[in-house]
Amino acid sequence: MNTQWEVVIGLEIHAQLATKSKIFSGAATAYGAEPNTQACVISLGMPGVLPVLNEDAVRKAVIFGMAIEAEIAPYSVFARKNYFYPDLPKGYQISQFELPIVGNGHLDIEVEGETKRIGVTRAHLEEDAGKSLHENFHGSTGIDLNRAGTPLLEIVSEPDMRSAKEAVAYMRKIHDLVRYLKICDGNMQEGSFRCDANVSVRPKGQIEFGTRAEIKNINSFKFVEKAINHEVERQIEVIENGGRVVQETRLYDSDKDETRSMRSKEEANDYRYFPDPDLLPVFVSDELKAEIKAALPELPEAKKRRFTTDYKLNDESATILTASRELADFFENVVKISGCESAICANWITGDLSAALNRADLEITESPINAERFAGLVARIADDTISGKIGKQVFEFLWNGSESADEIIEAQGLRQITDTGAIEAIIDTILAANEKQAEQYRGGNEKMFGFFVGQVMKAMQGKGNPAEINKILKAKLA
Ligand code: ADP
Ligand code: MG
Predict the structure, then answer these.
(1) Which atom of ligand 1 lies closest to the CA of 210?
(2) Mind listing the pLDDT tens digit for each residue in 334-366?
(3) Ligand 1 site, residue 156, Cβ cutoff 6 A
(4) Which backbone phi and psi does 367 adopt, to 5 degrees?
(5) Treating both helix axes as pointing N-terminal to C-terminal, what angle do 466-477 and 435-442 enclose, rounded to 10 degrees?
(6) Which ligand is nearest to the CA of 267?
(7) From the CA of 88, how far away is ligand 1's center (Å)?
(8) What's the pTM?
(9) Which DSSP symbol is given to 269?
């Protein structure tokens, strides 16, 4: 048998909303506090306490919905999802079920040069659970309820992805977007952004989906890709060996690079969802929608379009520069302050600056070179005061110090030499000292030209104007 298999993937992404307090109480949401110092009676569901909805969580959900061109429900309802787990002492999670706040949106991803639209079925508000701690408890488990009640936006995709690569591209896109919108800090190590991957396979050409397995709680892009690929192989093997994939929840073990069965898949009716009697429905009025819409920042796609048309950037640069709002602002400031062509500004930002930030593991907001000092560098390269090569040296000084590019160029004597008389004198000396090579060049060995450029540049400590050197050398070697 030689069946061609098609992979089908849908992701459920959990993004913790960056609100100061919890979704139904005033307790703090900050990460890393002493265990249980932020566990409040509401998150614990003590008898007699009443949850009160945090308006900021609602606003952030609406912001997200608008950014993916989704429907914002004028009326949505919180429901209790009943299940027992030690990190959920009240016995139910408050979530949204039949009437979520955000429905039916979409997002475009790019994979291998192709753009593909991924549907977002819904995004609903819910509370996070606590955490079980297995270290330091000698055979017991510790429970930290600080995280209980932290607002989550669960973003559910359509089963539209057809490879692990597409799933990663989608997850990254959502990750960029929630940070861009400043509704989630995106910190994956701290669990602020994580996903469940639903994976199935079907013979190519078959209309019906295969049975899916759900891989829980993946908190890195690398693991999503590995976990999905691994699960796809497992399912194909099961089917090709005459077995059937069972619908179940699996756990990805990154140490062993395998998925293991956790439990058979529960159905919605296992949870006995019902509307939470302690919470009013959420009304999002037209006024609130208008207010949020007016305050919405320019969205990444629109910004990217503007960068390609107004600044004439190529698609790649525009994508990189608009992935974060701060980087886009930095670029626009550099263009404005330097007065230089956008292409040279983009090149130096996406090139040397981005590389240095990556190496130092810094965000653009933490860059040791601000837009003004960076603009100073680009301006001196653009007006030929220094060459691009010397620009890299100046960049190092800018990175490690506090002077301006002009101060560095003067202090280090890096100004480019364009004085043709000076260049000519040096070229004459070098030609005189290398007669044999000159003969070879004139005899047709064109590679010798590079040798002479190198010699002249060396003699001028890299400061000779390359265009002038080429011109004069050509004339003298003719
Ligand atoms: P549940 O609430 O039980 O997890 P949903 O129907 O809400 O189930 O689907 C959860 C996710 O699973 C969605 O992202 C959806 O796109 C995806 N999904 C549904 N069916 C399949 C399938 N056969 N293969 C892969 N993904 C699927
Ligand atoms: Mg699910």
Answers:
(1) 23
(2) 999 999 999 999 999 999 999 999 999 999 999
(3) yes
(4) -60, 130
(5) 80
(6) 1
(7) 24
(8) 0.84
(9) G
